Amino acid sequence: MSERDHLDPSSEEFFESLYRADPDPWNFAGDPYERERFAATLEAVGPGPFRRVLEPGCSTGEITCLLAGRSEAVVAMDIAPSAVARARTRCQGLVHVEIRHTGLPAAIEGTFDLVVFSEIGYYFQAGPLADVVDALVERLDIGGRFVSVHWTGTSADHVLTGEEVQRIVAARPGLAARSHGGQPGFDIATFERTAP
Questions:
Q1: According to the 3-state scheme, what is the secondary structure of the chain?
Q2: 20 vs 91, residue with greater confidence
């Protein structure tokens, strides 16, 4: 049993231990499945351009760089310092991209017209996850888009399944479902922020 087995899977210590053991623990840079998921995520996001994008759980910045091409500004964040350092290196030169070291919920200034909530929901208990999504929705412009992407497999590290995450997101007030689909292995749901 490793030291990581005793850590809260939503904690900084847990994720930092993953990135110290492997700088790209999910092989985002090379796995064909991940590249397919990124392409499907961008399709769900749409062409933009977006005024301001929020990407919590940005990991090594793979999707962050792709979102930057459709956005006037991107605020990306991750809880693991090693992931943040890697994302900053990857996005170096993209002056409209800001990578922050912070967890969720976080103090976030201003509003956004797109939130990309990908592959992080299942590390939370149901109650805290609902609180996190509520906090993100509060920062979303009326008419803004919330894209939730989650793996549908199982992992000992996950507190919830991808399907459970999507149900919790869909039940949050202020979000209206606009599309739902995905491909084998992952689920994508797109929502629009409605009037409070």
A1: CCHHHHCCCCCHHHHHHHHHHCCCCCCCCCCHHHHHHHHHHHHHHCCCCECCEEEECCCCCHHHHHHHCCECCEEEEECCHHHHHHHHHHCCCCCCEEEEECCCCCCCCCCEEEEEEECCHHHCCHHHHHHHHHHHHHCEEEEEEEEEEEECCCCCCCCCCHHHHHHHHHCCCCEEEEEEEEECCEEEEEEEECCC
A2: 91
Phi/psi region, residue 44 (left: phi>0; alpha: psi -120 to 50; beta: rest), is alpha
User: What band does 1 get if pLDDT is binned at 50, 70 and 90?
Assistant: very low
Task: Please report the domains of the chain, with CATH numbers, ordered by start residue.
Answer: 3-193 (3.40.50.150)
Helix axes 81-90, 12-21, angle to 10 degrees: 60
Owner of token pair 């201003």: 110
Query: How far is the C-alpha of 97 from the C-alpha of 99, rounded, in Å?
Result: 7
Identify the pLDDT of residue 129: 96
- Over the stretch 116-139, which tens digit does the pLDDT of each residue have? 999 999 999 999 999 999 999 999
Q: How many CB atoms lie within 10 A of CB 43?
A: 13
